[in-house]
Specification:
Blueprint lengths: L3 E10 L7 E9 L2 H18 L3 H7 L11 E8 L2
Antiparallel strand pairs: 1-2, 1-3
Length: about 80
């Protein structure tokens, strides 16, 4: 099966009135079902565990480690 590459951005909002932290993302997978599983996995991680310590160092969100996100939205499409 041929791997497909999907790319775009996702926005993490830490509270209701937050502007959000927009981040680039690239996902390689076999089909749309696998893509949706990976998006669900990432979203669930932010909604339950909060920011990962390594990402916090990159994005300057040290106060968000272990704090669940309010919402996570993906804007992604298949690379042409």
């Amino acid at each position: 099966m041929i791997m497909k590459t999907y790319e775009g951005t996702f926005t993490v909002k830490w509270h209701k009135n937050d502007n959000g932290s927009r981040r680039p993302i690239t996902i390689d997978c076999n089909d749309k079902q696998e893509l949706h599983k990976e998006i669900r996995r990432i979203k669930n991680a932010f909604m339950t565990e909060g920011e990962h310590p390594l990402s916090a160092a990159i994005y300057g969100t040290h106060n968000k480690v272990g704090v669940p996100a309010h919402s996570v939205k993906f804007y992604i499409s298949e690379r042409k």
